[in-house]
Amino acid sequence: ITVTLKIAKRLLESNGEAVSGQQLADEFGISRTAIWKHIKELEEKGYDIESVKRKGYRIVTTPDTLEPLGIQTGLKTKRIGQKIEYVESCASTQIIAHQLAQEGAPDGTVVLTETQTAGRGRMARKWDSAAKKGVWMSIILRPNVAPQKAPQFTLVTAVAIVRAIEEVTKLQPKIKWPNDILLNGKKCTGILTELQSDADGIQALIIGIGLNVNQEKEDFDPEVQEIATSLKMASGETVNRQKLVQSVLFYMELYTQMYIDEGFGMLKILWESYSTTIGHPVRARMANHTLEGIAEGITDEGVLQLRTPDGKLHGIYSADIEMANSTS
Ligand code: BTX
């Protein structure tokens, strides 16, 4: 990173205390005038820096970007996010992450962008990714688990995101099986888990997360305006995307490690506690038939258990779920 960014990092790590120009000059081995020029450069980049007389410089706010410096300062993880690939714009962070994984990127590598021109959902659906209003991110994990354990990472990711949203805002999101996170019944987050595997097992999991943060209704594509929401629309407050990413990465590290070490048990309980589906009558639309019944729970494999009125229990692997008002 450049000297300018190193100075920003130094100021951010002083926990709100001002650092004098002389001290910075000594530490970086350059003149006070040179320090002042770097400070001006940071201000041009969008940093709000206060210069306190006789005390020095203090960063009041950082620019609203997802650049690694802002994310990594104050990041409480050991693995996830230690390496961040940031691009201002791209087709899809999934494409970049797949490429990096193939080139050997380490476990925990994160790809972040401000906007995607070809963001994707499951089954080649489109993911609307408004510029600078959301978090468009892919995480590369290299867990030493069997390929059939991969689908649960989507459920574990959903729990991590709900916890992060709860921590950073006052909102209480719900999870709709398998991978939607909802606020007031509308979708605020999508998760897409993809796999690179060979005869030896999982080479890499590429977990794509699309989190609507500060959009207004009109920032969404017209075709999703009625079904999508953002944290700002639901809470009425602008949300700091850096803090949100830090929190998501923290819970991702905590819960994916818990899943790898201890299995799905505890996480299943957490997942079910956040779910809108479990305990309710639902309609599951599958490729060529529809089933209605009560969603009783999920199995350790993440399969939805649906009991139809004739008493039979069905395992649902893939479907679109709607809440049904009655099971008759
Ligand atoms: P999904 O298939 O469950 O959901 C896709 C559907 O969601 C779309 O067909 C559309 O109806 C709706 N939709 C599209 N955009 C939005 C939006 N911004 N908010 C709410 N609803 C929307 C979900 O797939 C998985 C999405 C993963 C997105 C991330 S972003 C970073 C990474 N890169 C990438 O290309 N995809 C992932």
UniProtKB/TrEMBL annotation:
UniProt DNA-binding residue ranges: 21-40
GO molecular function, one term: transferase activity
Domain of life of the native organism: Bacteria
Keyword Mitochondrion belongs to the record: no
Record-listed biotin binding positions: 116, 120-122, 187
Major enzyme class: ligase
Catalytic activity entry: biotin + L-lysyl-[protein] + ATP = N(6)-biotinyl-L-lysyl-[protein] + AMP + diphosphate + H(+)
Keyword field contains Hydrolase: no
Entries under PROSITE patterns matching the protein: BPL_LPL_CATALYTIC
EC number per UniProt: 6.3.4.15
Biological process, per Gene Ontology: protein lipoylation; regulation of DNA-templated transcription
Annotated ranges, domain BPL/LPL catalytic: 69-260
CC per GO annotation: cytoplasm
Alphabetical keyword list: ATP-binding, Biotin, DNA-binding, Ligase, Nucleotide-binding, Repressor, Transcription, Transcription regulation
Record-linked PANTHER family: BIOTIN PROTEIN LIGASE (PTHR12835), BIOTIN--PROTEIN LIGASE (PTHR12835:SF5)
Function: Acts both as a biotin--[acetyl-CoA-carboxylase] ligase and a repressor.
Stated family: Belongs to the biotin--protein ligase family.
Protein name listed in UniProt: Bifunctional ligase/repressor BirA
Taxonomic source organism: Planococcus donghaensis
